[in-house]
Design goal:
Helix content is 34%, strand content 23%. The chain is an alpha+beta fold and 602 residues long.
């Protein structure tokens, strides 16, 4: 077959296939053009999931007569001051949007520049351009796209249902709204109720307000501010507390120089930063904004500008992880407010009478039991060395002493009042109460102690008078002995003891007396799941977390009042104490106003 030159119409449609994948692509291109034109209000209206109508109206600077005529020509742009493709300071540039859209749809542009006496309009119908004509418009630009892909019917077969395409448009506008909190956005269409995101104040408070409007107000209550800077790269944004998570990674957003992008880099960064806090199947919500020299990032690696390439990706990754970790450490003592909301909802559910029943909750049927330590109790409390900080004398008569230590009520976690089911500590604060999971809380405390000890001088060991022999499967024995050096760094000294057995000679002293048999079996299971590519630091953290679990005060142990208060004070002084090593919350806080609502006092 001989070589031939393609027609201009065919070339335009090929280009359109790269830029205009679906209606959401059109919305993205037109909205980005409005933002580059300095718009402060943008309205997007769609019909039929965008295939019948897309209309984007803005109050930007508009275009004069001559610029409008050029705007629908291929390779014409206002996004570059010269021909330097590495210095792009706008949301462009590929220069294909308007002519590509016009080649596959019916495009109409009406615009008015401040220096013009009236507006001008032009249409492009399947690639055929009209003359520029006078029109009526107050300010800015209005772009209408009708019958998308009518000129390329084969593309219509690949579109989803109107509802699905409308949801893709909504997600596109959400991302753009998050990137520009100073701009007001309105999204309306046949498939949805109109939604408006009002312009917010500049700075971090305004950004958080816009994120709350888009992601939900629960995110605002559970977000921590992220900030970092290194070698000209700035990272800002907000990340959710580790106890406020989702079942997928769709709530993770990255913006580079104001451009929403999808990058696998972010998923790895978030996984690394939250590694100490989350279970495997949970994902946090984050919105991170990276600002750097335009020459340090290539925005033209993807036709739809959805991906970028950093000149120094290692620098950006390290800065993102460090900034996230610092923010989580700073705010790690907080627990998600969703825990309190869920608790209130659970109470309301239990207080509601069954269908057809009269009356309300009968307190005589309540299974709740309060455990108050009494004089002469045989429970020894924290007798082990790991709990030495909590050993402060003989047991008290009871916890609920209203006048004792009133200053403790003003502390973040308040003063201990009772132990429920010998597992949960109930503490009173100035404006509510706190329920603490004693095992989860102490597990985090021990874990942080082990990490701190390893950073300083290493984990101190205690030699067992009689080594404990643990029998395991031969495969588990091989796995555990292969990691003996790593386990030794955390004070667990083991050696082979014949076929199918391991001898434990030393254990970490800060764990006190532990069940070495259960610990070794649990470690063997974890080691079996490790990937050889997993960094040594991550493997050591897994070891530390497992040891901390076995060295913590267990559920079902009756505590003395002093021990409960000491545990609360330790939580207040320990980083990341708002969640245990497995990502579960260590405490739930109920405000007095919520409790009063339950009992009809409000």
């Amino acid at each position: 077959m001989p070589v031939r030159q393609l027609s201009e119409a065919t070339v335009n449609r090929i280009a359109a296939g790269e830029v205009v994948e679906r209606p959401a692509s059109v919305v993205k291109e037109l909205t980005e053009n409005a933002l580059d034109a300095g718009a402060r209000r943008i309205e997007i209206v769609t019909d039929g999931g965008g295939r019948r109508l897309i209309r984007v109206t803005d109050d930007g600077s508009g275009m004069p007569h001559d610029d409008l005529a050029l705007a629908v020509e291929r390779h014409a742009t206002s996004k570059l001051t010269d021909d330097d493709l590495l210095d792009i300071k706008t949301l462009g540039f590929r220069g294909e949007a308007l002519p590509s859209i016009g080649s596959v749809a019916r495009l109409a542009i009406t615009t008015r520049h401040a220096g013009e006496p009236h507006a001008w309009a032009i249409t492009v119908d399947g690639g055929i351009k009209s003359e520029v004509k006078p029109a009526a418009l107050g300010e800015g630009t209005r772009v209408e796209v009708r019958d998308l892909f009518y000129a390329t019917p084969a593309r219509l077969k690949f579109l989803k249902t109107d509802r699905t395409e409308a949801e893709n448009i909504r997600e596109t506008v959400r991302r753009l709204a998050m990137s520009r909190p100073d701009v007001a956005f309105t999204l309306a269409g046949e498939e949805r109720m109109p939604v408006t995101w009002a312009a917010a104040l500049p700075g971090a408070p305004g950004r958080l307000a816009r994120l709350a409007d888009v992601l939900g107000h629960e995110f605002r209550a559970n977000a921590v501010e992220v900030h970092g800077e290194r070698n000209g790269v700035i990272v800002e944004g907000f990340a959710a507390l580790p106890t406020y998570t989702r079942g997928n990674a769709l709530g993770q957003y990255l913006f580079v120089n104001g451009r929403p992008v999808r990058d696998k880099l972010l998923i790895g960064v978030v996984r690394g930063a939250y590694a100490d806090y989350l279970p495997r199947d949970r994902h946090p919500i984050v919105a991170l904004f990276v600002t750097l020299d335009p020459r340090e990032v290539d925005v033209n690696v993807h036709p739809a500008k959805a991906e970028v390439r950093f000149r120094d990706p290692a620098l950006v990754r390290a800065l993102l992880i460090t900034s996230l970790q610092q923010a989580l450490t700073r705010e790690g003592r907080r627990a998600a407010t969703s825990g309190g909301s869920a608790t209130i909802a659970a109470f309301r559910s239990s207080l509601s009478p069954p269908s057809g029943a009269r009356g309300g909750w009968d307190w005589r049927r309540s299974p709740a039991r309060l455990s108050f330590p009494v004089q002469g109790n045989a429970a020894v409390g924290f007798a082990e060395a790991a709990q030495a900080a909590f050993e402060v004398g003989g047991p008290s008569a009871q916890v609920a002493v209203a006048g004792a230590a009133p200053d403790l009520i003003d502390r973040p976690l308040g003063a201990a009042r009772a132990q429920v089911h010998e597992t949960y500590i109930v503490a009173q604060t100035r404006d509510g109460l706190v329920i603490v999971d004693q095992h989860a809380a102490h597990e985090r405390i021990v874990y942080e102690r082990m990490k701190a000890a390893l950073d300083r001088t290493g984990v101190a060991r205690q030699i067992l008078l009689i080594p404990e022999v643990v029998e395991l499967d031969e495969a588990d024995v091989e796995r555990v002995l292969a990691r003996a050096d790593e386990l030794a760094r955390y004070g667990l000294a083991i050696e082979p003891f014949g076929p199918g057995a391991v001898a434990v000679r030393e254990t970490p002293s800060l764990l006190g007396e532990i069940d070495a048999r259960a610990l070794l079996r649990d470690l063997a299971e974890h080691i079996a799941e490790w990937d050889e590519a997993l960094p040594l630091e991550r493997r050591l953290m897994h070891v530390a977390a497992t040891m901390a679990c076995y060295g913590s005060v267990r559920a079902g142990r009756r505590l003395k009042p002093e021990e409960m208060n000491a545990l609360l004070r330790e939580m207040e002084a320990t980083p990341n104490s708002g969640q245990c090593n497995h990502g579960r919350p260590t405490y739930v806080e109920l405000k007095l106003s919520d409790i009063e609502t339950l009992f009809g006092r409000r």
